């Protein structure tokens, strides 16, 4: 049988594993921080209509500038964040993963470096590998928080071309304040990307409000995958200065965002009021699950996201299997003694808490 080893693969890709969470069919799926709620009927109808209308143009390539979608996104950001944003400030791509890839293609690459603060979203490191960017890992504290003095010092001393900060951070959900972000932007010799994939679940003000003050340095990445509950659409966007958006055009593939993606995303955005309601429910559930886990004797990292990192387990991999045995799929993010759970629907959270109680009270 021919295996990867037989291929003339780039040296730095040898012995690497593809990114992805183990997928097992369980009753309760809490491993990838998705929304637990499928689109309601009104949104399904809106998406259906939008796709049907778009289908009549399928013999043509999509709008390469995604003009209508970028205008809608600019309206959404201006309305919810209070930032003055127009379509020229918005870049769109297939999920915020692709947004981040474009950023690294344009501002990282061979001979350049990107700094992140681990543990953090592991795709950053992965994307540096694919784009030939040198990854500079700095560490968060034992409680997963980002020490701003240490982070600033690392940026000043090591001078990365790109700094990536997930805010809220995954896998723990902790946030840096807006002032903290600005301190790091001021210190950075290159650019700073703030990844706000989970920002709608956070009480912090968005860094989009700082873009105008730091036009050549700061960019903010967002997604419809989490709060909007639209992970299947694959729509991420960047809020940045128009010159940065021009830079993104240099590295994107022609017609990278399909007609259907653009149409479905516009329909999803038009229902953002409903999204705000589910976010409120999930935040209330996050509070309840945190309290109940704590009263079961677990330690839970304070989270501004739709997920919780908790422990401790004598053996996280074994604990992960015990949850699976009880029909609950969590994420083992490779942090000693810890597992991560998404906040699900109230029923799913009850199932997760019942499993947690059983696992806590049984001899490992
Ligand atoms: N950033 C963070 C911190 C994430 O956790 C995720 C999803 N797991 C993403 C970005 C990517 O999201 P998407 O590509 O679906 O927009």
Automatic annotation (TrEMBL):
Q: Which UniProt keywords apply?
A: Amino-acid biosynthesis, Aminotransferase, Histidine biosynthesis, Pyridoxal phosphate, Transferase
Instruction: Spell out the SUPFAM superfamilies in the cross-references.
Output: PLP-dependent transferases
Q: According to the UniProt record, what class of enzyme is this?
A: transferase
Pathway connected to this protein: Amino-acid biosynthesis; L-histidine biosynthesis; L-histidine from 5-phospho-alpha-D-ribose 1-diphosphate: step 7/9
Q: Which cofactor does it need?
A: pyridoxal 5'-phosphate
Q: Name one GO molecular function term.
A: histidinol-phosphate transaminase activity
> Which top-level group of life is the source organism from?
Bacteria
Answer whether the UniProt record assigns the keyword Amino-acid biosynthesis to this protein: yes
Domain spans labelled Aminotransferase class I/classII large: 28-353
Q: Does the keyword Amino-acid biosynthesis apply?
A: yes
InterPro entries tied to this protein: Aminotrans_II_pyridoxalP_BS, Aminotransferase_I/II_large, HisP_aminotrans, PyrdxlP-dep_Trfase, PyrdxlP-dep_Trfase_major, PyrdxlP-dep_Trfase_small
Write out the catalysed reaction. L-histidinol phosphate + 2-oxoglutarate = 3-(imidazol-4-yl)-2-oxopropyl phosphate + L-glutamate
Q: Which residues carry this modification: N6-(pyridoxal phosphate)lysine?
A: 226
Q: Which Pfam families match?
A: Aminotran_1_2
- Write the Enzyme Commission number(s) for this entry: 2.6.1.9
Q: How does this polypeptide assemble, per the annotation?
A: Homodimer.
**PANTHER family documented for this protein:** HISTIDINOL-PHOSPHATE AMINOTRANSFERASE, HISTIDINOL-PHOSPHATE AMINOTRANSFERASE-RELATED
The record ties this protein, via NCBIfam families, to: hisC, PRK03317.1
Question: What protein family does this chain belong to?
Answer: Belongs to the class-II pyridoxal-phosphate-dependent aminotransferase family. Histidinol-phosphate aminotransferase subfamily.
Can you name this protein? Histidinol-phosphate aminotransferase
What organism does the record attribute this protein to? Streptomyces endocoffeicus
């Amino acid at each position: 049988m021919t295996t990867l080893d037989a291929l003339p693969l780039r040296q730095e890709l040898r012995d690497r594993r593809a990114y992805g969470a183990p997928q097992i069919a369980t009753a309760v799926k809490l491993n990838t921080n998705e929304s637990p709620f499928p689109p309601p009927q009104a949104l399904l109808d809106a998406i259906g209509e939008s796709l049907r209308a778009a289908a009549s143009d399928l013999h043509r390539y999509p709008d390469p500038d995604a003009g209508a979608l970028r205008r809608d996104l600019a309206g959404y950001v201006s309305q919810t964040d209070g930032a003055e944003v127009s379509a020229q400030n918005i870049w769109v791509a297939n999920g915020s993963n692709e947004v981040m890839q474009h950023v690294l293609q344009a501002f990282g690459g061979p001979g350049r470096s990107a700094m992140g603060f681990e543990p953090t979203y592991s795709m950053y490191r992965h994307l540096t590998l694919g784009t030939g960017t040198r990854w500079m890992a700095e560490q968060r504290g034992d409680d997963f928080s980002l020490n701003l003095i240490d982070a600033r010092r690392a940026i000043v001393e090591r001078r990365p071309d790109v700094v990536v900060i997930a805010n809220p951070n995954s896998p723990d959900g902790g946030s840096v304040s807006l002032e903290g972000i600005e301190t790091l932007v001021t210190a950075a010799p290159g650019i700073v990307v703030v990844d706000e994939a989970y920002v709608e679940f956070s009480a912090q003000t968005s860094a989009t409000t700082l873009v105008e003050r730091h036009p050549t340095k700061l960019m903010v990445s967002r997604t419809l995958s989490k709060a909007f509950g639209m992970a299947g659409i694959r729509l991420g966007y960047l809020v940045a200065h128009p010159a940065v958006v021009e830079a993104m055009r240099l590295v994107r593939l022609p017609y990278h965002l399909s007609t259907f993606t653009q149409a479905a995303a516009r329909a999803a955005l038009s229902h953002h009021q409903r999204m705000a309601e589910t976010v409120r429910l999930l935040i209330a559930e996050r509070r309840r699950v945190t309290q109940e886990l704590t009263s079961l004797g677990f330690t839970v990292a304070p989270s501004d996201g739709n997920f919780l990192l908790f422990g401790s387990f004598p053996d996280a991999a074994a604990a992960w299997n015990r949850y699976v045995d009880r029909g609950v799929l969590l994420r083992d993010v490779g942090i000693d003694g810890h597992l991560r759970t998404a906040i699900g629907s109230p029923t799913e959270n009850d199932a997760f808490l019942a499993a947690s109680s059983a696992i806590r009270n049984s001899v490992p």
